[in-house]
Amino acid sequence: MCRQHVAEGEPELYQIGRITGIDITPLYDMEKYWDEDSAEHQLSFATSEIEREEIAKRIQSDKDNLKDNIDQVLELLNLLIERLSRIDHLDQKLDDSGEDTLGYDFYFTDFNTEKGESYIGNNFGQDLRNFKRFLEYAKKNGASTVWFNYG
Q1: In this structure, is the dihedral angle defined by the CA atoms of residues 70, 71, 73 and 74, taken in order, positive or negative?
Q2: What is the separation of C-alpha 48 from the centre of its chain, rounded to a whole number of angstroms?
Q3: What is the mean pLDDT of the chain?
Q4: Longest Cα pair distance anywhere in the chain, in angstroms?
Q5: 99-133 b/e with 16+ CB inside 10 Å = b?
Q6: Considering only CA atoms, which of 53, 6, 59, 62 is closest in space to residue 30?
Q7: How far apart are CA 79 and CA 112, in angstroms?
Q8: Which of 5, 42, 63, 126 would you call most buried, defined as having the most Cβ atoms within 10 angstroms of its Cβ?
Q9: For the chain, percent of residues with pLDDT exceeding 90
């Protein structure tokens, strides 16, 4: 997910969206959730009450846009998994912009194979399937909104 902020050229996830014909925006939107600490931190940068209100509106808008998104994200993951499972040599279809920091020849190969154990040594296919299983578990246990929180 963080590659959109550090990759030169087109980040891999955008490339994968283009290759599969799938809009991956809902995944990136999941980064726009504001927990209480991050919201307060962002609000601390306001230099006026008007600016504080504008920031608060943006925070609320971002939260509202994610509300009840679990089905949308699951549908996206199912579609990605289905389409990527039929693509051979995904690693060769992606442009690393001259900086392969992900290990394309391992991470983006053997999509349908479980390469790692738990989360160590996973490939892209395994990570997507694990993510899907987690969301199915979360939904089964009452979750309706999902987001990423890095910390």
Answers
A1: positive
A2: 33
A3: 91
A4: 55
A5: eeebebeebbbebeeebeeeeeebbbbbebbebbe
A6: 62
A7: 14
A8: 126
A9: 72
pTM for this prediction: 0.88
* pLDDT > 80? residue 77: yes
In this structure, what are the phi and psi dihedrals at residue 58, rounded to the nearest 5 degrees?
-65, -45
Query: Cβ of 78: how many Cβ atoms within 10 Å?
Result: 12
The pLDDT tens digits of the residues spanning 91-116 come to: 999 998 887 778 888 999 999 998 87
Task: For residue 137, give the 3-state DSSP assignment.
Answer: helix
Location of structure tokens 């246990």: 141
125-129 long-range Cβ contacts below 8 angstroms, 24+ apart: 125/81, 125/84, 125/85, 128/77, 128/80, 128/81, 128/84, 129/81
